């Protein structure tokens, strides 16, 4: 998922080789959407922290890696990260809440990001956002009641000349009208 426009948030991620199944963390078949126990989550976070903590600017790579492996940054991992980096819990929490990319709860099966930056806003982005909220029955940073779709804002996808634009499960789409949005959603939900 993109965090375009947010300085520093796009730090490269070194994939952490964490075997959630061996920790008992994984439940179900998709680790991105499973809900590990608090203890298993903390063990996974500690392993990820161990991979990055000695490198400069370790916080963002750690947070990206935790979200990549666990599907979100569960609240119980915040203290693990803070302790390892000698920071306060509030500091780590502040970074997590600053970047819209990071989430504290697992996403739905699909993630729909709607561009909220200026070019898209001036070319129908607001109407598209209203339409998406209505269609999905949820607001930004929330997931539809059936758990299918999480709606997120994004700040420029590099498609300004073809706005308004959206990203669905990492795939960008340009010139998205409300009708096109409906068609795209039928595709992901079918
Ligand atoms: S402002 Fe939306 S893609 Fe650039």
Automatic annotation (TrEMBL):
GO-annotated molecular function: 2 iron, 2 sulfur cluster binding; metal ion binding; oxidoreductase activity
Keyword check for Lipid biosynthesis: no
A Pfam cross-reference name: 2Fe-2S_thioredx
CDD domains for the chain: TRX_Fd_NuoE_FDH_gamma
Extent of the signal sequence: none
Protein name: NAD-dependent formate dehydrogenase gamma subunit
Cofactor(s) named in the record: [2Fe-2S] cluster
Alphabetized UniProt keyword annotations: 2Fe-2S, Iron, Iron-sulfur, Metal-binding
Metal-binding as UniProt keyword: yes
Record family assignment: Belongs to the complex I 24 kDa subunit family.
